Amino acid sequence: MPRIVVDVMPKPEILDPQGKAIVGALPRLGFTAFSGVRQGKRFELTVEGPITEEILEQARNAASTMLSNPVIEDVVNVEVLDEASTQDAEAN
After folding, report:
1. Which residue from 9, 20, 28, 54 could staple onto 40, CB 3.0 to 4.6 Å apart?
2. How far is the C-alpha of 83 from the C-alpha of 3, rounded, in Å?
3. Distances 48 to 60, 64, 67 between C-alpha atoms, Å
4. Which residues contact 47 (CB under 8 A, 6 or more apart)?
5. Partners of 43 in the β-ladder
6. How far, in Å, CA of 73 to CA of 70, rounded?
């Protein structure tokens, strides 16, 4: 079934304690190339039938009004998930 992906991230000026904890732990695990981490949220909205422009617009509206908190978060991506890449990922 087709899916729409919505990615939400904290606004740049908002403190991200989870990101800070992750960036602090990475060097202890041997990952030394990273100087910063911001943690966000990903939503996958499953659609019955084809994804039309109207359905995509509904996803954008849901992202900005319900899936994110516009005071502290930005919706950074709303896109149709490619079925072929989904099947490849599930096979691995």
Report:
1. 9
2. 8
3. 17, 22, 20
4. 1, 2, 3, 4, 55
5. 6
6. 5
Domains of the chain: 3-91 (3.30.1280.10)
Question: For the segment 45-79, what is each residue's pLDDT rounded down to a tens digit?
Answer: 999 999 999 999 999 999 999 999 999 999 999 99
**Could you tell me where the DSSP H helices lie in 1-92?**
17-25, 53-62, 83-91
0.70 surpassed by pTM: yes
Question: Cα–Cα distance between 85 and 58 in angstroms, integer?
Answer: 23
Amino acid at position 43, single letter:
F
In 3D, which of 88, 91, 86, 75 has the Cα closest to residue 46?
86
Could you read off the pLDDT of 4-35 as tens digits, one per residue? 999 999 999 999 999 999 999 999 999 999 99
Distances (CA, A) of 24 to 16, 18, 28, 53: 12, 10, 8, 42
